[in-house]
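#struct-help
A.M.: can someone run this one for me? Single chain, 91 residues.
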Amino acid sequence: MATEDLKAKADNFNPQKKEGPVARTIEEYTSRLPSDVFLWAAIGSMAVSATLKIMKKDEEALFVGQWPAPFLLLGIYNKIVKVEGKDKYSD
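D.P.: on it. Structure tokens below:
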């Protein structure tokens, strides 16, 4: 019985499917950036990581080498925001 109540509350929590103010603000600013920025940031961090590795700075190379994946994920987020709009269900 408690599970059904919880499910009913969850189903009725945000019936208009509107974004919160924080997500709306982030989407407003990230949608202004060209998607290429994130791609070039990922490629640039790979180049910096390779350069650091060649210079035998292994710890720094590993640190910078972890940046491409988050940059690419941010690029995907950026593209989704542009395709789906700031708030598809807003008035």
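A.M.: thanks! Residues 7 and 36 are 41 Å apart (CA to CA).
D.P.: also worth noting: The mean pLDDT is 84.
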